[in-house]
Amino acid sequence: MSIQTRNSKFIIVGGGIHGVYIANALLKEGLAALDDLLIIDPNDEPLSNWKAVTSNVGMDYLRSPKVHHLDTEPFSLKKFARNRSYTRPLFIAPNDRPSLDLFNNHAGVILEESRIQERFYHGLVSRVSLHKNSASVSVNGETLNSQYVILSIGQGDNISWPDWAVAAKQHGAPVTHVLERSFSRLRLSDTATVAVIGGGMSAVHTAISLAANDRKIMLLSPHPLRQHDYDSDPGWMGPKYLTSFRKISNPKERRAVISTARNTGSITRDLKKKLLLLEKRNQCKIYTDSVVAFTPVSASLMQIRLSGGDVFGVNQIVLATGYNSTRPGGEMVDQLASNYNLPCSECGFPIPDVSLRWHKRLFVTGALAELEVGPASRNIIGAKMAAGKIVPFLNLVLTN
User: At what angle do helices 48-57 and 201-210 cross, to 10 degrees?
Assistant: First the structure.
């Protein structure tokens, strides 16, 4: 869209899962008309990074259950699935997890019905300024004003590259990261020996989707396969664990609880079953070890050395090593926190209030909100949990 006015009620920075959900919630709750919203994102359309990454890894089904989606009505996706058929089941066990196609098609309908796309602006926010009665953002050389700014920034610019892989890339080695938008499976030879690095959902999805009769896949996981249905226990989505979590006043202690609660580097039971079946068929070899060094042999061949001493020759390396644990948002968020002396924990993440306000004109969601929302903050359900804090506060402020 082109900017028709430089003033709006809400500017949402980030057009991914969280930004779209928050926008839809504001519309559904009557807190904003369409013209009151502006969503700013460096990509060309909403959910662009989500679609790219899930396609890159070859995801078929979400880890989240069918009640986690982009609509505010819990059973919206279930109703949408009625009278629809796909080449694969719409939901799988456990927990009725939807197919990616179904989820994305449902998301497309939400975007169409809400007309959120009309308020989507392609650009990279370089600065957020906070004032007594307003806020503004600098983007594409313009200054855009609003009553509130909501930071819904994802992890897309915070991808983790091991040191050895950075060195290999600098030497021109064929090393790519599956979470980067530039990744293309079409560039992988059908007869190559491909090393997939990582042990979580992205790595196993990638290994499974790349396996082919003439292509040899090596999955190098730094730990034995860990099986969990969710990223964290479902109790973290409600009062079971969150009641005691919110009694913790020390942000450092909250961070420790979050780190312990997350099932980092784990996979679902169905993926584990598929992976082990591929190994049984000699289509994938699984190693529990870490790469410590590489040696280029030719333009299409390199040797990798594992910490246990094994050395292998591979043609291509695909990293699936997740995201860094540092705060997302880069320099823009660094300057924002510094310029307005916004409260941060020792880990660098915001310390928002119970309504996810980091400032009276600024809200946070996703990873930036996790010290208040808890371990599930980054997930799809985390968007709903964030809206459950932001929307009631705005209802009080804007309707009185």
Answer: 60
- Asked if residue 305 lies in contact with residue 291, where contact means CB atoms within 8 angstroms, the answer is yes
The distance in angstroms from the start CA to the end CA of the chain is 32
Domains identified in the chain, total number: 2
- Kindly state whether residues 203 and 148 are assigned to the same domain: no
Short-list 138, 132, 112, CA closest to 20: 112
For 164: left if phi > 0, alpha if psi spans -120 to 50, otherwise beta; the answer is: alpha
What pLDDT is recorded for position 235? 97
Mark whether 130 and 169 lie in a shared domain.
Answer: no
Calculate helix-pair angle for 269-280, 201-210, nearest 10 degrees: 40
Decide: 252 and 346 in contact? Cβ < 8 Å: yes
389 lies in a domain?
yes
Output the CA torsion sign for 97, 102, 108, 111: negative
Task: Specify the pLDDT at position 300.
Answer: 85
Residue pair 382/373 in contact (Cβ under 8 Å)? The answer is: yes
CA distance 278 to 325: 31
Residues 97 and 31 in one domain: yes
Counting as low any pLDDT under 50, the low residues of the chain are: 4
Do 312 and 329 reside in the same domain of the chain?
Answer: no
CA-wise closest residue to 361 among 8, 118, 4: 8
Q: Where are the beta strands (DSSP E) in 90-236?
A: 91-92, 97-98, 120-122, 125-130, 135-139, 142-151, 175-177, 193-197, 216-221, 226-227
Specify the pLDDT at position 5.
52
pLDDT digits (tens, 9 = 90+) for 31-50: 999 999 999 999 999 999 99
Distance CA 332, CA 364 (A): 14
**How far is CA 131 from each of CA 14, 128, 147, 282, 340, rounded to the nearest angstrom?**
21, 10, 9, 62, 10
Give the Cα separation of 148 and 150 in Å (integer). Answer: 7
Query: Which residue shows structure tokens 């930004």?
Result: 19
Domain housing 277: 163-228+263-319
pLDDT at position 6: 66
Rounded distance between C-alpha atoms, residue 157 and residue 33, angstroms: 31
In a domain, 207, yes or no: yes
User: Do 142 and 169 have their domain in common?
Assistant: no
Q: Are residues 56 and 15 in the same domain?
A: yes
